[in-house]
């Protein structure tokens, strides 16, 4: 039940969502509730103005933008490429940036990525260039570079945008650098906890899990629950985190709370049953297994009856266990169910019924060595030495039962 098994956040499935959010930031970069630094605004305005371009280069840039506005992306690319080929001594970040933007519109991310790298190399303070570079690198699955670009874009932005640091952390996670992702997310939550979304907490827990640093995530999981006490997703996150750390008692509590906030699915009832079983509370395990067994429109399997009956037996609720075994053997007969029925009867000292159950089990699976041994035990209890000897001889053929079966045979008259 490790956190990584289901990839807690399903980060890769969010690639399009992340890129679209970055695009929104690029388009609406002027809208913010944060105060912007006036010197930074002046610097970015100068970077975006293109005043240092020659008059002819400014005309080329204007022409390319006009064609871009008209949706004529290929024409815009042609104009820019032609100019830069004829004037290799006049590189400029805005020319490369505009070229890359049109290449992205033409679904040419590899070429766009190269030109965005040129743009930020020429102007390292070009905030919009860094953000677009992060987007392009992300689409090319160059996640480490995307993380670096988002971080650089955040540093050069005039208005604080903490969500950009979140994008950087997600990219570090996808780059298989969970330690860097964790460090970034901890900084993000420490500085901007009042803006935190559940996604931020999920990312941090995922990073801590992959980095093997569970302790560092514990206080954030608790804060997530405080901030999102009525959100079942927050409690589900806490459940997954506790289960990853093999704290099954807490995991059971958290998943139980999830069940109070929204209906549990069948697999979740099974998970909750497993958690209670692992926590040494078999009666609660049985109750949840029962809910899973009775889930609407579900056809139970032999394993479902086996799990439930075992839990009832562990809880010393023998009548309930017997009822489930009878139901399972009628609905989905199996060697394992018959063996458990044999164990139930043996525990109740119904040796004849126990032997009959084990014999039926062996008819379905003659390679079940323990079944032969139990047949031998039952026959001994019934005083049937001949059947006991025959069963024990069979049991002795199996390595796990060989020693005990041999000792019992020596005691037979």
Name the CATH superfamily assignment of the domain at 1-28 and 36-176: Tetratricopeptide repeat domain
Low-confidence stretches: 1-35
Find the count of extended strands (DSSP E, 2+ residues). Answer: 0
Q: What's the CATH C level of the domain at 1-28 and 36-176? A: Mainly Alpha
Shape: elongated
CATH architecture of the domain at 1-28 and 36-176: Alpha Horseshoe
Give the quaternary arrangement of the chains: single chain
- N-to-C terminal Cα separation, in Å? 51 Å
Q: Averaged pLDDT, please?
A: 90
Can you tell me the CATH topology of the domain at 1-28 and 36-176? Serine Threonine Protein Phosphatase 5, Tetratricopeptide repeat
Give the amount of beta strand, in percent: under 5%
Number of helices: 23
Gyration radius, rounded: 33 Å
């Amino acid at each position: 039940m490790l956190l990584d098994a289901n990839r807690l956040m399903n980060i890769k499935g969010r690639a399009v969502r992340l890129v679209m959010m970055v695009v929104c930031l690029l388009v609406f970069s002027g809208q913010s509730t944060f105060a912007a630094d006036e010197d930074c605004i002046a610097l970015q305005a100068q970077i975006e103005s293109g005043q240092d371009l020659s008059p002819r280069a400014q005309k080329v840039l204007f022409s390319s933008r006009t064609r871009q506005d008209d949706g004529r992306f290929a024409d815009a690319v042609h104009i820019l490429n032609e100019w830069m080929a004829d004037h290799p001594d006049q590189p400029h970040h805005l020319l490369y940036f505009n070229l890359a933007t049109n290449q992205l519109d033409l679904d040419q991310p590899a070429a766009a990525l190269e030109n965005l790298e040129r743009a930020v190399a020429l102007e390292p303070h070009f905030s919009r260039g860094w953000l677009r570079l992060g987007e392009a690198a992300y689409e090319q699955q160059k996640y480490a570079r995307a993380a670096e670009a988002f971080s650089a874009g955040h540093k050069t932005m005039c208005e604080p945008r903490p969500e950009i640091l979140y994008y950087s952390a997600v990219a570090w996670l996808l780059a298989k650098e969970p330690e860097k992702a964790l460090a970034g997310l901890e900084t993000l939550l420490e500085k901007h906890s009042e803006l935190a979304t559940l996604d931020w907490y999920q990312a941090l827990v995922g990073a801590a899990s992959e980095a093997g640093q569970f302790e560092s995530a514990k206080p954030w999981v608790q804060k997530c629950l405080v901030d999102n006490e009525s959100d079942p997703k927050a409690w589900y996150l806490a459940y997954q985190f506790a289960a990853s750390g093999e704290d099954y008692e807490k995991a059971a509590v958290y998943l139980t709370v999830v069940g109070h906030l929204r209906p549990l699915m069948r697999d979740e009832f099974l998970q909750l049953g497993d958690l209670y079983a692992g926590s040494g509370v078999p009666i609660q395990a049985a109750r949840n297994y029962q809910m899973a067994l009775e889930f609407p429109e579900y056809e139970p399997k032999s394993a479902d009856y086996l799990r439930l009956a075992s839990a009832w037996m562990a809880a010393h609720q023998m009548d309930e266990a017997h009822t489930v075994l009878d139901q399972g053997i009628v609905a989905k007969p199996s060697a394992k169910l018959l063996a458990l029925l044999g164990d139930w009867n043996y525990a109740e000292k119904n040796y004849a019924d126990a032997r009959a159950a084990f014999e039926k089990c062996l008819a379905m699976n003659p390679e079940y060595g323990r079944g032969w041994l139990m047949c031998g035990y039952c026959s001994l209890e019934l005083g049937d030495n001949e059947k006991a000897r025959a069963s024990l001889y069979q049991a002795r053929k199996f390595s796990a039962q060989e020693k005990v079966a041999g000792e019992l045979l020596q005691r037979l008259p």
